[in-house]
Amino acid sequence: MAYLRRTIDSELDALLPLAPAIALDGPKGAGKTDTASRRAGTVWRLDDQGHRDLISADTALADAGDGTILLDEWQRLPAVWDMVRRAVDGGAPAGRFLLTGSATPRAGTHSHSGAGRILALRMRPMGLHERGVVEPAISVADLLSSRARIEGTSDFTLANYAEQIVASGFPGINRLPARLRRGQLDGYLQRIVDRDLPDHGVSVRRPESLRRWLAAYAAATSSTAAYNKLLDATTAGDGSQPAKTTTIAYRDHLTQLWLLDPVAGWSPSRRPLARLQQAPKHHLADPALAARLLNLTEGTLLTPAGAALIGPLFESLVTLTVRVCAQAAEARVGHLRTTNGDHEVDLVVEGIDGQVLGLEVKLAPHVDDADVRHLHWLRRQLGSDVVDLAVITTGTRAYRRADGVAVIPLALLGA
Question: CA-CA to 367 of 20 to 30 Å: which in 37, 47, 196, 415?
Fold first, then answer.
């Protein structure tokens, strides 16, 4: 299968000539190994016992290989982190180490954070713009720098978006036939329970309770539903539900496995706003995982049975795409909601100079005044810090409204 260039490739192009060690973190299947191995002269796969034994015996990494060394699944041998950190302290050249990991090691398994030595980059599943099915024309980076030309058309329809919601951003799954893809996603979720959590020191005594909690989390996609409401939704047919402490442990460990990818509440750096809610918006690493947990196909998403969920799942696909693009622009992404809920902005992208891009998401091709009222409120609050405002839609044409708000089909949005 042909390699699909990822947005993070551009980041690596810029950073490998500068940084001696870069760690790519993200969920299993996101493509970290494939992307990193293309840049490595030597690949050590630390999920292989033989590779672990050899690296363990070479504490200075003196015989690890020439050129760029990839230490894949480094969390399986956490001591590697300190080995790399010491090598960097000892003068390792730029581009010497790449580390890929699909989990955060348990506390105490490595002694140093790596701050100032190992540069961490998050690698998420593919955003829509990375999947080879659309041709982006409008860049998030250009929106942040006020250079974006809002123009272009796309033939992507609502049915195409539904297909991409369930198709997955995992490169090894995205292009599979639908039945095989569903089986692979089910297997992915099952492995989290059967292998990844136990490998992380978590004993799952009642797998069905974890599955119900994950389904409740998936049903809350793109919302700030309180965790006690998620707990209520896990009640079994016999009236039982897991303890709150158990579900908190689920949440924490699933986040360490990068399966959960919530969007934090946002507050501006330069002009503080009062009465902002800080609860995160719930998102799984890939909206296709949420769709599988809820037993939704592209067909059911377009029927009354899926009507209540296609909007949140479309927002999750938008969120994934925006986050991938924003990271490449050195920007952070949050959501904004006032405490009493009278104002809400789906996504706020803040650039390195404090510039703000406000985004609303709408599962429809048309945008009216009611759809942009919160964006105008944001501009009134932050003034010139707001460099642009946009509504991301399922429409076919990009344009700018008379009030200055851009209307952009998701299929036209890229890095």
Answer: 415
